[in-house]
Specification:
Strand content: 15-25%
CATH architecture: 2-Layer Sandwich
Protein name: Cyclin-dependent kinases regulatory subunit
CATH topology: Cyclin-Dependent Kinase Subunit Type 2
CATH class: Alpha Beta
CATH superfamily: Cyclin-dependent kinase, regulatory subunit
Helix content: 25-40%
Radius of gyration: 18 Å
Organism: Amphora coffeiformis
GO molecular function, one term: cyclin-dependent protein serine/threonine kinase regulator activity
Oligomer: single chain
Number of strands: 5
Order of helices and strands: HHHEEEHHEEH
GO biological process, one term: cell division
Largest sheet: 5 strands, antiparallel
Function: Binds to the catalytic subunit of the cyclin dependent kinases and is essential for their biological function.
Length: 135
């Protein structure tokens, strides 16, 4: 694929055309304008995690790797904006422009760390909401 060492990739003005390394790290500048068209779902949860999905413009999604999950620095570099602690956890193959995120219940959105007391309270609230909590 690309022969440019990784530390030099960030210094080049346009990525290579191999579509397998550089564009993951340094997407074309036109994708930056696509960031304003990124859509965010409401959060939803189960008894362990909270979830959300992010819908990317299709032209932006075409620049992303198809066979692996994105790191936090990668999804932030394409313009996805959300609080700390979110992890890209799955690829929905029929719609690869939809990124699926999760984070443990009780995650502090400022630090990204899990607060055990917040986690317990969030689990109890979930169980209470669905009638699973014994009174």
């Amino acid at each position: 694929c690309c022969v440019v060492p990784p530390r030099q990739i960030l210094r080049i003005s346009s990525p290579c055309t191999c579509f397998s390394c550089c564009q993951q790290i340094n997407p074309p500048f036109s994708t930056m304008s696509s960031a304003s068209r990124i859509e965010y779902s409401e959060k939803y949860a189960d008894d362990v995690n909270e979830y959300r999905h992010v819908i990317l413009p299709k032209e932006l999604a075409k620049t992303l790797p198809k066979s692996r999950l994105l790191t936090e620095s990668e999804w932030r570099s394409i313009g996805v904006q959300q609080s700390r602690g979110w992890q890209h956890y799955a690829i929905h193959r029929p719609e690869p422009h939809i990124l699926l995120f999760r984070r443990p219940l009780g995650t502090d959105p400022q630090s990204g760390r899990i607060d055990p007391e917040l986690a317990r309270a969030a689990r109890d609230e979930y169980k209470n909401q669905f009638g699973l909590l014994r009174k």
